[in-house]
């Protein structure tokens, strides 16, 4: 397998072999107008495994492969192993009475993602859930921004956020959405129970269809003129309100 770094491979056959060997692929970049039997084989295995793709000009592939013979395809391999949500959930429920999960609804910026992972590790989050398609990758920049926390907090990739929510709710875990589309303050929510906090994407927030499924909606009070916070900052506020409530209760016991 040809590599330009520990997380990037190029060449159609090399990418096919990486997928078939079970490597966790973040995204495959494909050249516009690519054709041929080998490409169709790659396209089929990408769709079967529901791997995120992006069609790009050849100039981008040249940059990603450092002008090597990429054959019109470059893939990024995740430097971390992802967890199976059902297995992780079972382990956590066996050990913790009040698990804390974090769901990221198609967050796209790797630096926001890395910052959130770092805060999640500091606040005792038991697992982070992301969707396979449309989410920021766990790449070298994500890990650097997370200060290595990406190796410490279990991250689960799921086909659909809604399926993960159904699974969590079936396990009596309440889902709290961070959204401006509510009158409820973050301080009205009881975080001292099994909870999953869901944060939306930078531009859209939490998907409207996802919002319909949550147990609670909450917003942060904004006292200035700017109407919103950076998602990583907002996430930190939600997580530390959870910490505050849990610490306050444990100190009384």
If you had to describe this structure to a student in words, what would you say it looks like?
- The protein is an alpha/beta fold and 253 residues long.
- The protein has two domains: 3-77, 2-Layer Sandwich (60s Ribosomal Protein L30, Chain: A), CATH 3.30.1330; 85-252, SPOUT methyltransferase, trefoil knot domain (Alpha/beta knot).
- 37% of the residues lie in helices and 19% in strands.
- The chain has nine helices and eleven strands.
- It has helices at 12-20, 37-48, 58-64, 85-95, 110-122, 140-145, 161-170, 208-211, 231-252, and strands spanning 3-5, 8-10, 25-31, 53-56, 73-77, 100-104, 127-131, 155-158, 174-178, 195-199, 216-218.
- The protein has a six-stranded parallel beta sheet, with helices on both faces. The protein has a five-stranded mixed beta sheet with strand order 1-2-5-3-4.
- β6 (100-104), α5 and β7 form a beta-alpha-beta unit.
- The longest helix is centred in the last third of the chain and has 22 residues, at 231-252.
* Strands in their spatial order, largest beta sheet: 8-7-6-10-9-11
What is the residue-averaged pLDDT?
89
Q: C-alpha Rg, in Å?
A: 20 Å
Structural class: alpha/beta
Q: What number of structural domains do the residues give?
A: 2
């Amino acid at each position: 397998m040809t590599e330009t770094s520990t997380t990037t491979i190029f060449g159609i056959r090399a990418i096919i072999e990486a997928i078939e060997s079970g490597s966790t692929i973040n995204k495959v970049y494909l050249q516009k107008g690519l054709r041929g039997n080998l490409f169709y084989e790659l396209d089929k295995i990408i769709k079967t495994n529901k791997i995120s793709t992006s069609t790009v000009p050849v100039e981008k592939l040249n940059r990603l492969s450092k002008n090597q013979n990429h054959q019109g395809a470059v893939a990024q391999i995740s430097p971390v192993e992802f967890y199976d949500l059902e297995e992780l959930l079972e382990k956590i429920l066996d050990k913790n009475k009040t698990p804390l999960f974090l769901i990221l609804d198609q967050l796209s910026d790797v630096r926001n993602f890395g910052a959130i992972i770092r805060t999640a590790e500091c606040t005792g989050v038991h697992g982070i859930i992301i969707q396979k398609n449309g989410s920021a990758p766990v790449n070298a920049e994500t890990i650097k921004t997370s200060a290595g926390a990406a190796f410490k907090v279990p991250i689960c990739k799921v086909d659909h956020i809604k399926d993960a929510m159904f699974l969590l709710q079936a396990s009596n875990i309440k889902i709290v959405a961070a959204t401006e589309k509510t009158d409820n303050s973050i301080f009205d929510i009881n975080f001292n129970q099994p909870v999953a906090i869901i944060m939306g994407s930078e531009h859209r927030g939490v998907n409207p269809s996802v919002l319909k499924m949550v147990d609670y909606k909450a917003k942060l009070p904004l006292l200035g003129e700017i109407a919103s916070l950076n998602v990583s900052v907002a996430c930190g506020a939600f997580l530390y309100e959870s910490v505050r409530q849990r610490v306050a209760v444990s100190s009384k016991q």
